[in-house]
Amino acid sequence: MLESIVDLPVEKQIFYAVLGFSWTVYLWEAYLSYRQRKIYRTTTHVPPELGKIIDSETFQKSRLYQLDKSNFGFWSGLYSETEGTLILILGGIPFLWNIAGSVTARFGLGSEYEITQSLVFLTLATLFSAVTGLPWSLYNTFVIEEKHGFNQQTIGFFLKDAVKKFMVTQCILLPVTSLLLYIIKIGGDYFFIYAWLFTLAVTLVLVTIYADYIAPLFDKFTPLPEGELKTDIEALAKSISFPLTKVYVVEGSKRSSHSNAYFYGFFKNKRIVLFDTLLEDYSPLNKSGEPQTEQPESDESSPESKAKPKNKKQGCNNPEILAVLGHELGHWKLGHTVKNIVISQMNSFLCFSLFAVLIGRKELFVAFDFNDSQPTLIGLMIIFQFIFSPYNELLSFFLTVLSRRFEFQADAFARSMGKASELYSALIKLNKDNLGFPVADWLFSMWHYSHPPLLERLRALGNVKQD
């Protein structure tokens, strides 16, 4: 078998290598998921070491939720891998490229207008992806998330949101892609440097404007009201010289009851965003017994969300929120954000440099049925998505390991601020609110968990607290 593959033309070897590696990764992921599903199925009682941390009812709810998610992930992953394989075998990429050429030809634009054809191709490809992914997204939201009490959306709001996301994505993707292709074409021998600098600039701009101009298109951001919590957050930021300018609450509850918090901004203009579902005193999910006039977004007639009776208290109290923010600010103080940006940009520069070496290799294009042309966008797709896939897998694993290390360090930073016990209880509450399952297969955890499992984080906090 191996000898017959070696005897094939180099472009065929490339094609089968890409296909073979893709299925190897899929089978590896499927094996890891199988191991974790076995944990979900067999761990039906709270382990002794978790007896004081999680009650039996919550443990069973989280077990069933994660089991449903894992089963869904198996079938959606199998579909995705099969779809990708069929696209490659049946020549879906050159077929779509030719359709894009036919569209531009209708407007009198020939093959010399490669960038225009590339943008049409990109639009068609993202539209195809959105349409084929829609049933899976609908099932995940309105079957799995609905079943386990997380979904807060109506079908109408979901579809309106999906269309809005698609349009916003196109408004960003198409201009950026056209400029990138233009830079590559006119950049000469050092185009990879200019292309990298351009993507760096785009990344910095998007990070800067996302929360102020893009995120508000989808969610409502309001300043955190004056009060004890805001005063304490400002004092916490000041104690570590974090240049905080504003604190926002985002109305995440209109989509989901999952909770989160993050900060953003560059230099002296940092802002903190708290999900309303994180705040015990603000979460609409804790107010289901109050008059509807106090939460009109939960009216049955509202196109954005729907009322759901809640039997549990959600969110964290103020000291616990401060502990969570102590963890998040620890990422900033310890330079984790900057380190991640540096690693990302080093990787980007390396990939563009290798792309410059490989883009002239005709056999890469012939391998994917581009026998008569070598479009730059197709070259980017082939090299970055397919040829670099082994490297991308290794890099992803490295970043997962690094992320876990950063999470332990951020926990330790919050602990050093005297917030160990509050973070301890906050982690338990957040795990309960999000139905996180606290038992993990070691191999699945090592490969996938960018955040350490709950028990490992609690042990680290608890041991030092005792010291």
UniProtKB/TrEMBL annotation:
**Protein's recorded name:** CAAX prenyl protease
Q: Where is the CAAX prenyl protease 1 N-terminal domain?
A: 36-220
Q: How is the cofactor bound?
A: Binds 1 zinc ion per subunit.
Q: Which family does it belong to?
A: Belongs to the peptidase M48A family.
Question: What Gene Ontology cellular-component terms does the record carry?
Answer: endoplasmic reticulum membrane
> Mind listing the GO molecular function terms for this protein?
metal ion binding; metalloendopeptidase activity
Pfam families in the record: Peptidase_M48, Peptidase_M48_N
Q: Where is the Peptidase M48 domain?
A: 224-462
